[in-house]
Amino acid sequence: MTTITRSEVVAVVIAQGGETHAPSLAAAGADRVLIIDNSSLGPVCGRAVGNVLAGAVERETPYAILFASTADGRDLASRLAARLSLGLTGDAIDLEIDDEGQLVQLKPALGGNVVAPILSKTLPNLVTLRPGLLTPASPSRAPMFASSGRNFRKTQKGRDLARARVVVGLGMGVGEDEVAGLVEVARSLGASVATTRDVVHAGWLPQQLQVGISGRSIAPTVYIAVGIRGAFNHTVGLQRAGIIVAINQNRRATIFRSADFGVIGTWQEFLPPLINELRPVLASLTSG
Ligand SMILES: Cc1cc2nc3c(=O)[nH]c(=O)nc-3n(C[C@H](O)[C@H](O)[C@H](O)COP(=O)(O)OP(=O)(O)OC[C@H]3O[C@@H](n4cnc5c(N)ncnc54)[C@H](O)[C@@H]3O)c2cc1C
């Protein structure tokens, strides 16, 4: 955003000892870092922190304020909106600057079937953004996750889904009994595993692996979608993926609209030969 609007990027850290984050924020593109030490103010989402932040906004008069769509971010953004009488766009998935320099906030609407452009009537623009959807200016460090699903007891050691270069996505078409076996296949490739909300709801894999509108956003070099229909709610989390390979037995499956390579057929028949063929390429990606 700095280059497009030629404006300054200010990162706000609300934490005790927040100075420790300043170098990494500067490395990621922050021109300035404001630190709010909340040790005597109370929780991040509390009234006192909201008041301090509102004071900073009134002093600095920024063009836009972006919050992560986390519990704290949503809470703080709403407090700010109420206090300063500003509009607020919640859960945007992307941002653009139009020809007139306005911030276009892109937000899924109508059950995720369209992406609506939102323009604020008030300034500063106030937006909450789903974490992970924007490409960081320099490599970001994402936390490791611990898994909790029934068939996925171990952690993906060192293979953070957010940073994985090869990801195998397992959908409902995989079938409950086969999930564990395919997780092992993914591991043998050095790949991470992702999944859909329906699989998570079925309890086959943990929520931490869900990709999509209410899950994570990932940016692998290669994504192999196995038995995944390709609902927008899932593919929105793949916007930054490189090559998407899909195997689905239904030729009309919407995943083929997102895929660079599609195999129409069952994964039972086509996944093993596909993996044999791709193994050397995938190994070169995951070993780096
Ligand atoms: C508010 C909201 C938020 C949501 N958020 C998310 C989200 O964050 N992430 C997400 O993923 N979903 C999300 N969803 C759900 C989403 O809309 C879809 O329902 C879900 O992604 C479908 O999961 P699926 O593709 O695994 O299952 P299905 O829709 O059941 O598709 C299974 C696919 O497997 C194929 N198949 C079956 N057997 C085989 C076989 N043997 N070989 C090959 N292919 C086979 C079928 O042809 C089918 O296309 C959300 C929904 C709502 C309403």
Verbal overview:
The chain has 288 residues and is an alpha/beta fold. The chain has two domains: 2-129, 3-Layer(aba) Sandwich (Rossmann fold), CATH 3.40.50.620; 166-286, TPP-binding domain (Rossmann fold, 3-Layer(aba) Sandwich), CATH 3.40.50. The protein is 30% helix and 22% strand. It has helices at 2-5, 22-27, 47-60, 71-84, 176-188, 197-202, 232-235, 255-258, 267-286; strands at residues 10-14, 32-36, 64-68, 89-92, 94-97, 103-109, 114-118, 125-129, 166-170, 192-195, 222-226, 243-248, 261-264. It has a five-stranded parallel beta sheet. A three-stranded parallel beta sheet has the order 3-8-4, with helices on one face. Helix 7 links the parallel strand 11 (222-226) and strand 12. Helix 3 packs across helix 4 (71-84). The chain starts with a helix and ends with a helix. 31% of the residues are buried. Residues 138-159 have low confidence and may be disordered. The structure holds flavin-adenine dinucleotide. Flavin-adenine dinucleotide (FAD) binds at residues 171-173, 196-199, 210-215, 227-229, 231, 233-234, 247-250, 253, 266-268.
